[in-house]
Amino acid sequence: MQSNGKGIADLIASHKPGYALDQRFYTDPDVYDLEMERVVGRNWILAGHQSELPQPGDFKVLNVAKESAIIVRGSDGKLRAFANVCRHRGSLVCLESEGHVDKFMCPYHGWMYDIDGKLTAARSMDGEFDKSGYGLNPVSLDIVHGLVLICFSDDPPGLDGAKRDLAEPMAIFDFENMKLAAHKSYDIPANWKLSIENYQECYHCATAHPEYSQRHTLMVDWRKRERLQTNMREKMEACGIRNIEIDRIDLNAPPGEMGYGYSRTAMFDGYVSGSRDGQPLAPLLGTISDFDGGASDFVFGAFSFLLAYSDHVVAYVFTPVDMRNCRCDIYWLVRGDAEEGRDYDADELTWLWDITTEADKTIIANNWRGVQSRYYKPGPFSNMERAERQWTEWVLQELARP
Ligand code: FES
Ligand SMILES: [Fe+2]
Questions:
Q1: Residue of the nearest CA to atom 4 in ligand 1?
Q2: Separation of CA 124 and ligand 1 centre (Å)
Q3: Is 383 exposed, middle or buried (CB count within 10 Å of its CB: 0-12, 13-18, 19+)?
Q4: pLDDT of residue 1 exceeding 60
Q5: Which of 71, 75, 283, 371 has its CA 20 to 30 A from that of 99?
Q6: What would the mean pLDDT of 98-125 be, rounded to a whole number?
Q7: What does the alpha-carbon distance between residue 167 and residue 1 come to, in Å, rounded to a whole number?
Q8: Is the C-beta atom of 332 inside 6 A of ligand 1?
């Protein structure tokens, strides 16, 4: 575990609080391997919404770094996840990213698995061979009010706190009964942490995101924002949105559990949703009775962030591909009974966060170019980078946890 003459434990200990991470956290393969084991491999990752897989045999595949999971609705109607790794000699079993099957057939030698993960056929094996010992390995899966989470550990962090404390805010939007309106994947040529750091701060918004900055208030001076917040709070309750704030994020997570959070922030006057013209994009969600001009942020663990407007939800998931590449998956969710063409237009719905994410892709890639330079030295965080600071400290804490 020695790299560049200095161990990772020393590297973590030498981190200066309030400053960006040392170069080696981004570029050292030993650090990356440890992150895969202790951070990415031990924590929950959002894999989508339960409505994406309504029927037994409906499946999707989620790839994260070297791991691949098949998420499938079983013959009993329950969602499960399995490692997409054949129990014969290890080939990927499922090469499609989503679809419907009666059985999964390994493309290498044809071993067949049913939708509950059991091995049902294997040619030319001798009489002693017991198929029951060769089912697909289970991957941890749980559902939090409609959202599907998976974890590549048999001993994942608890979800009791998130399920309990997020029950009320998630019920306002009726997450259980949403449906997926659109999904896009963005390949970002950068170390995965730079993408998540970027998502968590809006210091860059004013310069990088003119469309976002016209609508959202996260980058304005706190005094101006307070005035807008007060206006929104006065409207909120009448619109059926209770004023709730939860911060069990990252270092504030209950011991042994996934961190989570909830808050609502006002948009600028004239905007009720993340649309071009400020007008609604889809029917109101859940029990919301009118537009209050706000948008809510949900945090689910370390990789998954949701923005809930009154009429749709944008869910972000950032995962590593390898040390130098990562992916951002965005899921747009609307009311379960909304119909495309009648109630919403997918192009309009995805407009704001598509252009914003394309812009982020560029600035994150530039950041990645720069942090690899011999001249890179970690600089101090601004007051607008508190969430990012918390998150980087959480990563260090997880890296140091045996
Ligand atoms: S590796 Fe899958 S059948 Fe051989
Ligand atoms: Fe951004």
A1: 109
A2: 12
A3: exposed
A4: no
A5: 283
A6: 98
A7: 42
A8: no
- Closest-CA residue to 118 (of 55, 149, 162, 76): 76
The residue among 138, 144, 140 whose CA lies nearest residue 159 is: 144
CA proximity to 269, closest of 211, 348, 216: 216
Q: What is the pLDDT of residue 225?
A: 86
In 267-339 the beta strands, taken as DSSP E runs, fall at 294-300, 304-308, 313-322, 325-335
Task: Return the residue matching tokens 């998420």.
Answer: 71
Q: With cut-offs at 50, 70 and 90, classify the pLDDT of residue 296.
A: very high
Which listed ligand is nearest to 361 at the C-alpha? 2
Pocket lining: 89 vs ligand 1, CB cutoff 6 Å: yes
Residue nearest to atom 1 of ligand 1 (CA): 89
SS3 293: coil
Q: Is the CB of 51 under 6 A from ligand 1?
A: no
Q: Separation of 89 CA from ligand 1 center, angstroms?
A: 5
Residues 232-250, mean pLDDT to the nearest whole number: 96
- Regarding the beta carbon of 86 and ligand 1, being less than 6 Å apart is answered yes
> Which residue's alpha carbon is at the smallest distance from atom 3 of ligand 1?
109
Is the CB–ligand 1 distance for residue 94 below 6 Å?
A: no
pTM: 0.96
pLDDT at position 292 is 96
Q: Judge whether residue 305 has pLDDT over 80.
A: yes
